[in-house]
Amino acid sequence: MSMIDASFLYMENEFDLHHNAWLGIFAGPAPSGDEFRRHIASKLPRIPRYRQRVRFVPHDLAAPVWVDDQHFNLGYHLRAIALPVPGSDAQLRELFTTMMAQPLDRNKPLWDMWLIDGLEGGRWALISRLHHCMADGVSTTDITTTVLDREPTAEIPDVIDDWKPAPPPTDTELVQAALIEAQQQGLEQASRYNTWLSSLKEQMSVVDQAFASLKNSLANPLSITSLNGPIGPYRRWAWAKAGLADISGIRKVLGGTVNDIVLAIVTRAFRDLLLSRGEEVADRTVRCLVPVSVRSIGEAGGGNRIASMYAELPIGIADPRERLAAIRTQMDGLKASKQALAADVLTSLAGFQPPALAAAGARQASHTPNPVNTVATNVPGPQHPLYLLGRKMLDNYPYVPLASTMRIGTSVFSYDGYARFGVSGDHESMPDLDLFADALGEGLRELVAAAAAEPATVKA
């Protein structure tokens, strides 16, 4: 496990759980519990991490390691429950937030799935939780497309699965391995560090520019403070969706990337939220962490391969066209400044720290005020239907965990023609989360209207 992956374990506490999740809504009827279990069992050989658990090295002498679960029981990770028929979307969301408040058992593989029957219209749902130390947004999507099928087949394939857990290491063996690794790294560290430093020197002007951009983004205090503060153990969660055809139409006329338009929609939602609270928005911004995947094209595998950019969402701009233009200009500037490179350099530098020091720093981070107001993730998914046992997945809404003093976050997942928004909020301090979710829809509609009012000129 990398230290970046491990940091999501170290930062976790009872109020700050670091599991990612998604909720899929499927056409009925729901499969039986036995069908569901056999289907997931047929996928396990392709997801080896699902049968491994975390083992911490004594005294944090090394990063935690993945070990086979000697007592792996698939039934523990698969649950089936039903809402009172006809279950509403509101009841489903309430059930979802209840599950998000429950920590994953660290003595077992850090994932579970819940089959939820009884939704109105004959639908059913699947809730999947997966700890952030196992996967980022991109690798979570890879796992999702492994669990689900591209074709609407109801047949469960015969899979030869001769998996047997490898013998677990003892604490003594873990310590010995950590000491040997430390000794080897001590001999190799200088060489690795010099190689890494040389590669940076070759692009030093770009690196200097990246760090200057990062410093400028975080130098000023937050202009909106009501979005930050202590959070409790419980969450609210709401959703919205936007047609990718609508977003494409906006791009053709008003310009920008899909992510620019998503951020413009999120900005409108924050504007409405703060205005409804009677707060001043003129000349103010909401600072937003925008994760960026640093995976190379075709790079697969689990774990976390992300860097960050920091955008100031211009909530003071009322006109949707001007708002999108401001975001587009800002994001183009952040990309040109290579700000994400600075974050990636800091991440790489963390790999040269002694593991115990890195662990202590990550634990302290969970008690440190967050330098941003919010987070907005945007993960592209498959633009074709996915199925589970022949049942089509109609919708897939993501969940992003909150961290430290950040009370609201937005995650976007595109699937089969729609960008679906999942909005996470602290239960006590975000009672108006539904207003925010409704405003996402308004943000899309006003951009569609703005694009329709202008001549069709394609902008890069």
UniProtKB/TrEMBL annotation:
It is an enzyme of class 2 (transferase). GO terms for cellular component: plasma membrane. It comes from the Bacteria. Its EC number is 2.3.1.20. One of its GO terms (molecular function) is diacylglycerol O-acyltransferase activity. It catalyses: an acyl-CoA + a 1,2-diacyl-sn-glycerol = a triacyl-sn-glycerol + CoA. Residues 1-262 form the O-acyltransferase WSD1-like N-terminal domain. Residues 303-447 form the O-acyltransferase WSD1 C-terminal domain. GO terms for biological process: biological process involved in interaction with host; glycerol metabolic process; response to hypoxia; response to nitric oxide; triglyceride biosynthetic process. Pathway: Glycerolipid metabolism; triacylglycerol biosynthesis; Lipid metabolism. Keywords: Acyltransferase, Glycerol metabolism, Lipid biosynthesis, Lipid metabolism, Transferase. Gene3D superfamilies: Chloramphenicol acetyltransferase-like domain. Belongs to the long-chain O-acyltransferase family. This is diacylglycerol O-acyltransferase. It comes from Bosea sp. NBC_00436.
